Amino acid sequence: MFAIIDRTDLRLIRVLHADARLSVTALAERIGLSPNATAERMRRLQREGVIAGFTLRLDWAALGRGLIAFVEVKLDRTDGEVFDAFAAAVRDVAGIDECHMVAGGFDYLLKTRHADMAAYRAFLADALATLPGVRETRTYVVMEEVVAGGALPG
Q1: Which of 36, 56, 129, 133 sits CB 3.0–4.6 Å from 82 for a disulfide?
Q2: In angstroms, rounded to a whole number, what is the distance separating the alpha carbons of residues 24 and 104?
Q3: Is 154 a residue whose pLDDT tops 70?
Q4: Is residue 53 part of a domain?
Q5: Based on the structure, what is the number of domains in the chain?
Q6: Local structure of 110: helix, strand or coil
Q7: What does DSSP assign to residue 128?
Q8: Is 57 part of any domain?
């Protein structure tokens, strides 16, 4: 079931998406509602799963994880057992920022973060290649991150 979202909800979501640290009072001022009405909308949007949580944007280079690599993963078989085993194992691998099952010429697309190319090479050999069902990988190293965590459309 989908939540009913009105223009005020969308305005609230856009403002929070840009700065999730805003107080309810500051958010209320920006969207033109009272703090109580704003807080109630936020609670409803959280209850309905529209707002799933709040996160930090990190400077990964400052944390020693400035190298981003996208990795295509092709499994040796495409059946439920292999998919389940890979998905369960990949959740516990350090360095994997995102994992998406995709349709097309490969099975999963990973976004990974590492200190440098040597660290990525170790990750590939010691972690990724040992996951269940992995037959083949193809790596794309990011030269420049142009947009990250994009804004909501419209």
Answers
A1: 133
A2: 44
A3: no
A4: no
A5: 2
A6: strand
A7: G
A8: no
Q: How confident is the model at residue 70 (pLDDT cuts 50, 70, 90)?
A: very high
| Closest residue by Cα to residue 113 from 91, 128, 98 | 98
Q: Does residue 16 lie within any of the structural domains?
A: yes
Answer yes or no: do 73 and 101 share one domain. Answer: yes
Question: Per-residue pLDDT tens for 96-115?
Answer: 999 999 999 999 999 999 99
| 85 token code pair | 């085993």
Contact 5, 144 (CB under 8 A): no
CA-based nearest residue to 126, from 154, 149, 94, 99: 94
Instruction: Tokens for 139, please give them.
Output: 């790596």
AA identity, residue 107: D
On the 0-12 / 13-18 / 19+ scale of CB atoms within 10 A, 52 is exposed
Structural domain contains residue 60: no
Q: How far apart are CA 77 and CA 67, in angstroms?
A: 30
pLDDT for position 148: 85
Residue 138: beta bridge partners? 72
How far is 109 from 131, CA to CA, in rounded Å?
A: 14
* Domain with 115 in it: 67-141
Q: What is the SS3 assignment for 122?
A: helix
